[in-house]
Amino acid sequence: MLRKILSGFKILFIMVLMMAVVTIALMYVSRVPNLAEWLTAGAQEAEDENGAVSRIATAILGGDGEVIAVELEPEIILTGVRYSETGGTLELPINGATGWAATNTPLRSEPTSNAGTVQNLSPGQGFVILEGTGNWWHVELDGATGWVDRRACFINLPDVLPSIIYTNTNVSASLKSSNGFDIPDVSWQQLYNARTYNPRLGREEYIMPAKFTMALALYEVQQFALADGDTIILYEAFRPSDAQRAVVDGMNTLIAENTFVRDAITRGPWNLGWFISTGVSNHQRGAAVDVSIGSIRYFEYRQTGDFIYRHILDYRQYIMPTNMHELSPWAAIVDSPRSITAAQILAGNVNMSSTVTPGVINLQTAFAHSGFTPLASEWWHFNHPPSVSAARDRGFTGNFHTETVYSRPPVIAD
Asked: I need a surface site. Which of 8, 230, 328, 407 has the fewest CB within 10 A?
């Protein structure tokens, strides 16, 4: 009998020990991005849900030694170089990227304003960028080549910043709402078309036009985020003027029909203009972005042409005060209307609303480091002042759509 009791205690002890080991393992796993398969810290073979070995996974550690992301080994051998290693200030070079005229501008025979005009480009007319020098892009369109002043143009953000997550819900099904109510003829509707196959990236991708100067600043923001294992999630950059007008009309209809929304939007301290510009907005100027931020779970490197770039495979968006594009005081980062500068954000001199989450703080900090200014009424909206000023001076109105890309894989010039 004593032997049976001791045997029972032995079995019980082993079971408790096994449970303790499993508990400790689960505690450690929680610190590592939880993939569909278990990926341990360090270089290990990853198994899929069926137990088959698939990819090599390497844990990426932050400055404090914590795992901040997991890199998967490429499925093919990469022979390219990182553009940053060649002195580039973007993730991929501009050659082979899609661009568009943002206003009426001449295509010239040489990179100077005194050169002859090959043809005149109208707003929204697209081209592929061949190379650049100073403020000039050498471009090709409809079989013709020439030079355009890049300050009068937009560039496609995914072509030069492919590590950012692009998810334009105004192109799929608009998330715009106000005080929890759907906006007539806007909510859950496709406001415009801007998604197509991108041969440069080898996948379907959103079309995201923006001023080149803002693209350079967004590169800095993304590098700041990546250093912490985060990524920018870009919902919208350029927004066509007719899509802007549709939101204004929808909001006016909702305000007229819904007293709750009318009181929240029009009876101070806010007004409609804080939530949707009734004129030309900085989105039409290609000088503003609507964004969120997320924690990277795992990523890999891919190659296009002669260059490799980071491609994020999975991420988790941080908790924010509201859904994206909830047009109401609930989305404000402060309790009353005011202008806020990047310097104030960095200095901690902004009395944030009590609804602001740590995710909003991370987002505001990342964009402030690159000189973007927030909008007090929308946690997701940032303007790039130099781009705003330049676009306003050139009269950008955004009265066009961009539904096609002309992108090509970038190559290193001989």
From this structure: 8
